[in-house]
What we know:
It contains 27 helices and 16 strands.
Amino acid sequence: SNFLLANAQLRRGFPIVYCSDGFCELTGFARTEVMQKNCSCRFLCGAETSEPVLQRIEKVLEGKQEYQAEVCFYKKGGAAFWCLLDVVPIKNEKGEVVLFLFSFKDITESRGKSHPGDRKEARRQGRTVLHRLGSRFARRDRGDVKLNRNVFENKPSSVPEYKVASVQKSRFILLHYSVFKALWDWLILLATFYVAVTVPYNVCFTGTEESAAAARSTIVSDIAVEMLFILDIVLNFRTTYVSQSGQVVYEPRCICVHYVATWFFVDLIAALPFDLLYVFNISVTSLVHLLKTVRLLRLLRLLQKLDRYSQYSAMVLTLLMSVFALLAHWMACIWYVIGRAEMQSSDRRTWEIGWLHELGKRLEAPYVNSSVGGPSIRSAYIASLYFTLSSLTSVGFGNVCANTDAEKIFSICTMLIGALMHAVVFGNVTAIIQRMYSRRSLYHTRMKDLKDFIRVHRLPQQLKQRMLEYFQTTWSVNNGIDANELLHDFPDELRADVAMHLNKDILQLPVFETASRGCLRSLSLHIKTSFCAPGEYLLRQGDALQADYFVCSGSLEVLRDNVVLAILGKGDLIGADLASQEPVIKTSADVKALTYCDLQYIGLRGLCEVLQLYPEYASKFTADIHQDLTFNLREGSEMEVGVDTPALTPCAHSQPRPDGGAAPEKPLPSILEDGEEPDEVFQPSPAAATCRKRLLPSLSSPGR
């Protein structure tokens, strides 16, 4: 939407407190050039602009009335365009006009044609903006400004508080941090462990009629797991993810591209439905079971989630024990395969001393030949698992022992792996846990210190809550890392390069374009980061201003006597100029955070020191800082609000506004009155819904 918001509560003029991105694109002016100008839009007039229309606009503003007209305005570059101007006063719950909404619709192409629908559409767009403002642009304190949902009604209505806009996503998009997704991940984890256990078992112990019957007994669970894996692929195509920049991605197309480029093919191979061959009575050979080993690729997804599970010591120990038991199970399957291979050997002396032959004699179920007789599959698996576990955890007990060369080689490998497991995992469990929880331990230590400080000094509950919330939020942003302390021991050259990279957003402002690289490096060392929570005051009126602030993310408002002077968002610069040599600069207004805000600031003392080192740039900076400051907080720096200077008024035939004015005009037909039909009641159009994210700066961006 192309719109402006102007403050209607000041006695001297009506300064612009917010302009949309669409207005900047339409006119070519930057936000810093528009803020605090008079909303009568004389800075847009030119040779063909109608002076009576401008005077009518000023009279309407004084009377706080609605108005709609076709006006010829001029862009910053001098190009003329015709627009349908719609002026709407915004009332609070007390019926007082607190803001003016100026809506601009470009009608240059349709100029001179009959377009009754344009007026109605413009008014509907204005209503759309009001609807969005009514749901977002309310205030917390009782004495602050509040917006009415419908300015065309005389009855007061309740307004919601200031809050971040809810995330707009399709109902078919699954949040990766939702409770359902967490439970689903646990179900997939259990299914993955089931596959890791059953697939090696079926591959190694399938071959006899008994084992084939056992394999068919698990056909239902196997098919159920395959269906789970297939369904997981479908859900992953509709599940959000966190991008490298730390933002949650909700766009379906981006989600599909990301999943295809990462885990899709691994999941697809692991979900091939081999067990459906049993349903169609197709004979299954050992080769099919070998192909099912590709399902073990699902274990790679487990490695992806280890960081999430590693936050809990009990989970770490559980995973270690599960990995150890899984390794013992796999080695038991291999041990059985070696025994079967020795039984099928052509050398009779070899298969007579094999561990399977010895087990059959002890269980009184000897082998008649290589394929007849012998212990049951259940007894053979238990004996295999017993041997591998005893070999991994100790040197074994000898009741199940290796006799042939192949069995002895496998036993040697098993004992080496067991020693490695002891040395790497079990011997370092304490060190692993301490290493994983070092940062968390520091967090709990500082949190305990903070709570002890609050308890000792008996701080009130409200102040306690603010301190705890600020600490937790700042920790989530920087993870407890102090960049200044971390870079303290590095050389100045490297520190300056790192500082320039960290502060590149503020150094890319137009005011720093003419600065030399050495000047920018010196400035970067004086730039610090700050953070502000919703409802916190960054500056108070009358405070000594110590720095100029750059808004990296979030939204703030500038207040004076509970009146909104400006709304600041990402990319705005707020502070004071260095025009005078005053030792102390007093702030002329309050600056309050509306959302969680990341800020970068440069101290005025450090700024002056750098400018003294680079005098050739100092004069340029002093002259340009007025244009880059979105709002100047220096006391007495306000321009005469409501009167545009000649340099800012390109109108060639501007005349002083007469004291008198024409009689009030009748309401326009497109303005809905109380007596209109119910079907004309405002409903946001689909096209107007797209302006929600651009309504206020950074209010619709995802929170941390």
